[in-house]
Specification:
Elements: E1 7-11, E2 16-20, E3 28-32, E4 46-51, E5 57-61, E6 66-70, E7 78-82, E8 96-101, E9 107-111, E10 116-120, E11 128-132, E12 188-193, E13 199-203, E14 208-212, E15 220-224, E16 238-244, E17 249-254, E18 259-264, E19 272-276, E20 280-285, E21 291-295, E22 300-304, E23 312-316, E24 330-335, E25 341-345, E26 350-354, E27 362-366, E28 380-385, E29 391-395
Antiparallel strand pairs: 1-2, 2-3, 4-5, 5-6, 6-7, 8-9, 9-10, 10-11, 12-13, 13-14, 14-15, 16-17, 17-18, 18-19, 20-21, 21-22, 22-23, 24-25, 25-26, 26-27, 28-29
Length: about 400
């Protein structure tokens, strides 16, 4: 089912996927429907289906050992995983079942007969094994004909519940001491990672936004970089940046200028102020294009639907404090698939969750006073929430 309540159903016998809008009984074919086969306009024994935020349909095909993507309105699909015949190579699948796609376009598929879960990055010609792949069995490193993999929402951050991180990091931007060179950063804060793994960094003290391609040894200035100032071609202490893919632009917290700026992502030379008189510290965007901005000075988070200039308070807005209806120096914001707002509340050393329409929030991390105990935080900053509701937060003061 998509966010509009339309139901998508695979018909194993007719080799097609149909969409049923609310109240419909017949439905519309949105994938396949041209008989059983391996052409791009056909499906063969479709099993599972996934719908992304753009209403593209992803289908696992047992008969063709592949996963197909059908863009909304398309007459044929494209192969996004497998399709190289049945087998256990990294370019192959064998009886794929459950399929999900994250917000980066990465495909995760239960490769049933190979007893493994595969991950296929967007545009990749082969996948990688992330679970299983050691033959069928009941050992801790084995699976036995897996059917599904529970990543469900393209609006959430998809992190495996048993994920473990390496203790040795890899530098992806900067790392060449503080400075204003193209291979340097100075007091960087907010960042955004694009579909192709490019990293956009708010390079605060250099008053610019820098893009670092994956594997690059230097960055490219994509906004600002013309000295500190309030001109349309300048920034002053930018603190956060995101990408608006629909409009192919950057949205920037231009903190010292008390504005939010939209800047063309490709060869932009100046920005456009879209929100004025705001102490923006963090921002994010939901799947409908609504912008959420933390206002550090007013201790609130506002939602701006497309075209709005005033916005609506969705968290805080009752002065600075530690009550459940207050925030104190909010920093970063995350919005989940249900449009609940998560805020890192630095002044109260907690992360707050505000359900859509709520008059007060609930503390989901910290809130036990400032400290380094496992129940405490110390001026939390960046926050994300995975598909299981697990909160990940950078605990700045505890380094």
């Amino acid at each position: 089912m998509d966010e509009n309540g339309s139901l998508y159903v695979t018909d194993f016998g007719k080799d097609e996927v149909r969409r049923y809008r609310r109240g419909e009984s017949q439905g519309t074919v949105v994938a396949g429907g041209n008989g059983s086969g391996n052409r791009l306009g056909q499906l063969s024994y479709p099993h599972y289906v996934f719908i992304d935020r753009d209403h593209s349909v992803y289908v696992s095909e047992r008969g063709n050992d592949r996963v197909m993507k059908w863009v909304e309105g398309a007459k044929q699909g494209i192969v996004v995983a497998g399709g190289q015949g049945e087998g256990n190579g990294l370019t192959q699948l064998s009886c794929p079942e459950g399929v999900v796609v994250d917000q980066l376009g990465t495909v995760y598929v239960a490769d049933s007969r190979n007893a493994r879960i595969m991950r296929w990055p967007k545009g990749a010609t082969q996948g990688s094994v992330i679970v299983g792949g050691n033959g069928r069995g009941g050992q801790s490193d084995q699976l036995n004909q897996p059917i599904d993999y529970p990543l469900r929402s393209p609006s959430s951050t998809n992190i495996h519940p048993n994920a473990r991180w390496q203790q040795n990091d890899i530098t992806v931007a900067g790392g060449n001491r503080q400075g204003n060179g193209i291979n340097q950063l100075s007091d960087p804060l907010g960042l955004y990672v694009d579909d192709d793994q490019s990293v956009y960094v708010a390079d605060q003290s250099n008053h610019r936004i820098v893009e670092w391609k994956w594997g690059a040894t230097s960055g490219q200035v994509v906004a600002g970089g013309n000295g500190q100032g309030s001109g349309a071609h300048q920034l002053s202490r930018p603190l956060d940046v995101i990408v608006d893919k629909e409009r192919d632009s950057l949205i920037i917290c231009d903190y010292s200028n008390r504005r939010v700026v939209r800047w063309p992502r490709r060869n932009g030379t100046s920005g456009e102020t879209i929100i004025s008189n705001i102490g923006c510290r963090g921002l994010t965007m939901d799947e409908n294009g609504s912008l959420y901005v933390t206002d550090f000075g007013k201790h609130e988070v506002r939602q701006y639907r497309r075209g709005e200039s005033q916005g609506t308070v969705v968290a805080g807005g009752n002065g600075s404090g530690n009550r459940l209806d207050q925030l104190s120096g909010p920093r970063y914001v995350f919005v989940d698939r249900d449009h609940s707002v998560y805020v890192s509340d630095c002044g109260s050393d907690r992360v707050m969750k505000w359900v859509k329409g709520a008059k007060q929030g609930i503390a989901v991390a910290g809130g036990q006073g400032q400290g380094n105990g496992l129940t405490q935080l110390y001026c939390p900053q960046g926050v994300v929430v995975d598909q299981l509701g697990t909160v990940y937060v950078t605990d700045q003061g505890n380094a």
